Amino acid sequence: MISPYLIQFIVFIAFTLIASLYFSFSRYDMLNAPQWIGLDNYDKLINDPVFWKSLWNTIYFTVLFVPTQTILALILATALNQSLKGLKLYRMAHFIPVISSWTVVLYVADAIFNPRFGLANDLLLKLGMEPQQWLNDETLVIPVLVAVAVWKGIGYMMIIFLAGLQNVPEDLYEAADIEGAGVLQKFRHVTVPLISGTTFLVLVLSTITTFQAFEQIYVMTGNSGDITAAGGPNNASMVLMLYLFQQGFAFLKMGYASAIAWVLFLILFAITLVQVKLQNKWVHYEK
């Protein structure tokens, strides 16, 4: 009964993992047989300035994205956890970007951040400020990409928080009311501790999502589908997944791309391990 899943796991997951690990120690261009070169790919990574730039950009993206999305998703979930008229409509409206394709979302983003006719520059002009070259400015490109990513994914994290909020016992809020606690006190001392497990899940999922960011950056910073043009300006938006994709499929350096993939895996594994270790200090468990 489980053989279909086992076959799928062995062929498409286990085999590819082993193959990519082997390729990471090889010179492989997908046209010729891989040649074993030992640690040369990893040694090249250590001395590759673009790799370090892409790693820094990925960390910067994560530092901006994870707290912003987590806080905004929690605020939205709290607001939409009330008894309001048309509540389902509001929830659906916030979830629409999640189920929309990146192509649709990026058309909307272009209508906002396009330097020639975007709504963002129109607003700046009305406020008497200078228009910006949003995606062509090295200091603005990552924050703009983060803003679009938050808008795209916040609905999903909001639903997760909603599930956690609806599991908080009402009698605890009633007890807090009797003690004279205000709205903020109830949120801080009742809501936040009891949804800490949900918050931990959101933090882990958001972190993994940011380290795997690719499609949005590829489309928004690329030039008519040119793989090598994405990640600009001056590699200011180059992230690990995009650099991996360029090395593997634009330059056919599949061995080098595999080495990047395994470094990315080790980074994610280490971050997740740290998060799991730290959860015992702040995650509340029901007894």
Automatic annotation (TrEMBL):
Primary location group: membrane
Membrane topology: Multi-pass membrane protein
InterPro entries (alphabetical): ABC_transporter_permease, MetI-like, MetI-like_sf
Keyword terms, alphabetized: Cell membrane, Membrane, Transmembrane, Transmembrane helix, Transport
Entry's transmembrane regions: 5-25, 59-80, 92-113, 140-163, 194-214, 259-278
UniProt GO cellular component terms: plasma membrane
Subcellular location: Cell membrane
Domain ABC transmembrane type-1: 55-275
Annotated GO biological process: transmembrane transport
Homology family: Belongs to the binding-protein-dependent transport system permease family.
Protein name: Sugar ABC transporter permease
Organism: Halobacillus trueperi
